[in-house]
């Protein structure tokens, strides 16, 4: 596209010159003309959306509080609307750049770039069903009709190489521990565990050290618990193909995880709790004991897990055809559920120790799982696209995690989120209390028995939609307040919990909200800010109220009132997203960490102030820095199996751990924690433990990387992306391998040669 043609077709082209100079610029251009990448097939043009443009001059752009699309980006959309004359555009795949261009957060006008770019073209957008928050941004800022698609089929990570060998050694130990061979096998378990670097996660004695039978059981129990955690972790295997429902075996792992959650509101007990009751145990007790490494409970939990998988596999197999596809589910389910004696799960359990499981509870659960199975395999992804292209109504449906909320299924719906004023729910508050107490327990254990005075947290939009406000509830419980809902179920006020009921001091918080959270939950930011300021004004001893203690210190240092000093809710400036550290790391456009920290502070130090309604986000960098300088721990949440720490760059983009270390007077690095509520047994791990678990279950796991490589170059890009994100999070080498370092390096070399074979002909 020539420059003159571009200027005549793009009325807002002159506004881009402030950031990008005169067209054509050096992005998507050959120096004389602008280039539109794509290929036309008759009436269809398939194009590649241009990038944000950070590659051109990353440092200038990354520090700017607002930016604009580059000329190549604008030319692309001018071409689609005015030269190709598209009747509709389909944005294919989650999270493009268009909807995140600068402009108002909601209610676009003609000076907002998303509005200028999309012009008058109807926008249809395939979006992952588990990401309702960013889908909402796409609707609000680019007028998209979002059509949900399934996340990739999930499988259990399984065990491989040294980890598999460990599993076999533990089985030998259990059958031979009372013979003379027990100590010898434990010695092999310890040396193999060390080879697999499990000594980073489990305290292991020396192989030659003589230990008692009870201590041997505890060592084996702890190693067993760790490898069970790796084995049962859910992994997305490969990529989802639009319009291809999962096969039966792919559906089993999803159903096992749906069955693992209690659903008291529907009168449904979880399968693990039904099986545990059969042997006279409470499943929560089993989880706790297994976490501590008590061998007989780790073994019981493994038996419960195996029986759950077996019973559900037996159930799903009855609904499949010879190709392993689930067919005629409705007819087959009515024949299974119609007769008591033939129930496949009862047949399976009859040969296990759980043969006396409560039949009524099982029946209620499997009727629910039958409905879920119908939804998992019902496929309307292509049907909805066709309806949208015909200008017809696309049925709406909630987005979120299909395991927590199976109503997200079937896919092919126009995604909506939830009523933002209805969170946090009572159930979210219950879960939050458990996680907060575990976090404080872990921090006290790592910090000489002292309570953390301040915790720096990150709040994400998607997480809070999926969990109905769990991470929001965690912040409220740390400072010791309870949300109060009105008669319509809207949460718009809080009340302090007494110190007697709380049983600990009120922990100070620094809350960093993502740009998406700010857009979707502005009322909840108001609620949080009011809650923190209320706690800062409570007249209680400072050693029991760290919010007040720090607010008084900061008010004195800054010469401001206590309420202003108690500002703790921060995000980006209105209409701006992300700290952009991820882009700087991905483009290698930084020289030292100080640049990254300045970038974080300049983009993330905008405060919400409930005392100034309608003022929007105001920059309060000094307050932000002072509040962060008191943090002794940082904290993030993982809430679903599809997205983990290394799957997206946002986790290291928003992680304040390194920043806090440089702001603290003593230069001490805060402990970084990650809560994992992806299973019924919620865990709080350190950042390093979570990264090791992630690397073992994905990057180093043949099941995962071979599944990815089977999908060609896109799968290879996914492998590369996770390696980049691991480096982005770690800043230093980490031992995560499954053998000695030389073997790991050799394995990576092999992996890279396989990857290079796959990407011949593709720009490395």
Automatic annotation (TrEMBL):
GO molecular function term, any single one: magnesium chelatase activity
Record domain CobN/magnesium chelatase: where: 3-729
One Pfam family hit: CobN-Mg_chel
Superkingdom as given in the UniProt entry: Eukaryota
An example Gene Ontology CC term for this record: chloroplast
Family listed: Belongs to the Mg-chelatase subunit H family.
UniProt protein name: CobN/magnesium chelatase domain-containing protein
Record organism: Fagus sylvatica
